[in-house]
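Shape matters. Shown next:

___
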Amino acid sequence: MQKPPAFLATLAIFLSVVLGLTPAQAETPTGDAKAILKAMSDYVGSQKTIELSFDSDIEVITSQLEKIQFTNSGEALLSRPDKLRVHRVGGYADVALYFDAKTASVFGKHINGYVQFNTAGTVDQLIEALRLGHGIALPGADLLLSNSYDVLVADVKEAKYIGRGVVDGRECEHLAFRNFDTDWQLWVEVGKHPIPRKLVIASKTMNSAPQYTLRVKSWKTDVQPAPGAFAFVPPVGAKQLGSEALIEFDELPQGAK
């Protein structure tokens, strides 16, 4: 049965006032997801220094098919092309990564031990080395690459613009992408500084599609790192460990799958 005009007018007001959308926005969002992603990549890649803080959530599925989420918080300091410091703390690990263009050091405060290896090169090369050589996933690190666009769209089968959203009070462009084994979403801040504010990755190859979520809380550029900011000095009593110990620095408790 056809709805009367008065009903349609009321519906339009509801969408506009309650949802914060015009009827046109609610029906047919417009935008180019890849173009917005490229603008974000160009902006982030052009920043010589970046200081940020973040929260992250990672889900696991138990043998009883119960979904459990673990949370972490941290901060990162990047100086292109070859210096990085990241600190992440959660309920099961307190981990810091230092890279000074020559040596990478991963320190686990919760076990007072560290892993150290030589890996001269750029931050981009460090991230690749950690993933390929040491099995560390670093799911949010792609956002900081000097050319994140090429990496992020390499396996994309479908890109979609969803519309506008709000993350921590900031208006963002909401994008969705599909790969063979993952679906992932990205919220990019609206305006002349297209900062990545939220990333969600869902695994389609695992039962119940567990998700990884990263939220960027603060973001600063043109910062001046303090002298020695990227150098690692082992604390008194800290033990140097083999690379196999990196499993103890994960975001999940030991034994979680």
User: Anything to note?
Assistant: DSSP finds five helices and twelve strands in the chain.
